[in-house]
Amino acid sequence: MGRNRETVRRCVCRDRRQPRSAPLGGGMNQKHPRRNTKAARFVQLPMVLLDSEAVSTLGHAPFRVMVCLAANYNGKNNGNLGLTASQVADKGISKNTFYSAVAELERRGVIERTYAASRVPPRPTKYALCWLPIDDTEYSRTTRLPSHAYKSFSAPPRKKRRSRAMLRAVR
Predict the structure, then answer these.
(1) Residue whose C-alpha is closest to residue 149's, from 107, 100, 101
(2) Counted domains in the chain
(3) Tell me, what CATH number does 69's domain have?
(4) Distance CA 56, CA 47 (A)
(5) 130-146 burial: b if 16+ Cβ within 10 Å, else e
(6) Residue 110 · residue 54 · CB < 8 Å
(7) Is residue 6 part of a domain?
(8) What is the pLDDT of residues 27-39, one digit of tens each?
(9) In this structure, is residue 30 part of a structural domain?
């Protein structure tokens, strides 16, 4: 019973068949040895966002651009998310569609621009996701709370389409 912590640690390391001082390889994380860093990444979109009027009435292209921006988020770079037309071209989105989709997302409050694009040095426009707090990056300021600007968006009322029979009756 007189074992100290060092003795217990050495026993645990011997049981794992890997000395504690040896570097962990094979895509393993140094802090969390059982966490594989080569695993597939995922995008987390909260239900509050998906149920909001700003997102539920989006077209397919703005929604895909939103998912592409969210896929660039790594947990500490909100406000430094850059996306260009050439990056989304392989996903079937043309240059004009990309820029109109980004403008639509900004108008609805789903994303916000944190840094304008520049030619020298070449940098894309940087964006932040409005459902997450903005991180302290080179291109953005830190905010503790997310802006949730998308919650204040209200879609314009849809125009009722007249049927052909009604149009003939009007003439």
Answers:
(1) 107
(2) 1
(3) 1.10.10.10
(4) 11
(5) bbbebbebebbeeeeee
(6) yes
(7) no
(8) 555 666 666 666 7
(9) no
